[in-house]
Amino acid sequence: MLRIAYHQCYGHPVEEGHRFPMDKYPLLVEQLLYEGTITEEHLFSPLSVDEKYILNTHTQEYWDKLKNQTISYREARKIGLPMSDSLVQRELIITQGTIDCCNFAIEHGVAMNIAGGTHHAYSEHGEGFCLLNDFAVAANYLIEEKGYRRILILDLDVHQGNGTAEIFEGNDKVFTFSMHGKNNYPMHKEKSDLDIPLEDNTTDQEYLSILRKHIGVLFKEFQPEFVFFLSGVDILSTDKLGKLGISIQGCKERDEMVFQSCKSKNIPIVVSMGGGYSPQLNLIIEAHANTFRVANNLYF
């Protein structure tokens, strides 16, 4: 059975008029339940992550600032969200959800977090709507608790996974791959193990051809034992922050390519949703829902 991390706090409200669409998370669940792709049985509600796992990835100083709500105004501006205890608690629950998904993926081949993909969080600060880096914390959990030695983070959000790249710089147990918009946030990009910057208005055909080539090489040469997939739908041509030219069908084919690559080699995969900022919320929901549909159809 496809197991999906979801907690009611994922829809945590932010200031009125804020551009970050927190409401997409409960709406995505409602859509998947309504159409019958999933039932309530597929969903599980994570608890809060243990501090020891946070400190395997993030610095004590940064964690103390989050925990004690002593983030400065300037630091909060960089994160881009109004800080609160409930927002930090939300991030702790999302991060535990991704860890829990690791264990379900080991058992079932795949597991998914309705939220997550907080790849702009660095070891010592947050930015770009990200406080804690859920993939990084979960990858370190797999290394420390499960003995994994070859983990691939496949970041296909339109924005470079700069925080993830910084956290795992020089770590030969984790390979960071980011395929992102060349002329998009962050303007200063970190160095992933492999970065593929894409020109504005990249089409489905170009995008899928590039991805197919690099996935083939990565799986052959790095031979990952576990994959994290950041399935951002801000690659869509309709996205107001994206700048690429990908259709909903192209985004779906991207997901199929990733899942098929992992399933054919019996590599567990954990998926977090990442970004999506199309003006029409129904397009965001449809593109995200396709990721769940593809996983459920292919694995179960």
In a nutshell, what does this entry contain?
One of its GO terms (molecular function) is histone deacetylase activity. The protein is α/β, with parallel strands linked by helices and 300 residues long.
Distance between the termini: 6 Å
Low-confidence stretches: 15-19
- Tell me the count of domains: 1
Oligomer: single chain
What share of the residues does DSSP label as strand, in percent? 5-15%
The gyration radius over C-alpha positions equals 17 Å
CATH class: Alpha Beta
**Average predicted local confidence, pLDDT:** 95
Keywords: Hydrolase
Protein name: Histone deacetylase
Domain Histone deacetylase: 18-280
GO molecular function, one term: hydrolase activity
How would you describe the overall organization of this protein?
This protein is an alpha/beta fold and 300 residues long. It has a single domain (24-299), classed as Histone deacetylase domain (Arginase, Chain A), CATH 3.40.800. 43% of the residues lie in helices and 12% in strands. It contains ten helices and eight strands. It has helices at residues 24-35, 51-54, 60-67, 73-79, 85-108, 134-146, 162-167, 204-221, 248-264, 281-299, and strands at residues 3-5, 43-44, 110-113, 151-155, 174-181, 194-198, 226-230, 269-272. It has an eight-stranded parallel β-sheet, with helices on both faces.
Descriptive key words:
300 residues; alpha/beta; Arginase, Chain A; eight-stranded parallel β-sheet; 10 helices
SSE arrangement:
Elements: E1 3-5, H1 24-35, E2 43-44, H2 51-54, H3 60-67, H4 73-79, H5 85-108, E3 110-113, H6 134-146, E4 151-155, H7 162-167, E5 174-181, E6 194-198, H8 204-221, E7 226-230, H9 248-264, E8 269-272, H10 281-299
Parallel strand pairs: 1-2, 1-3, 3-8, 4-5, 4-7, 5-6, 7-8
Domain Histone deacetylase: 18-280
Protein name: Histone deacetylase
Pfam families: Hist_deacetyl
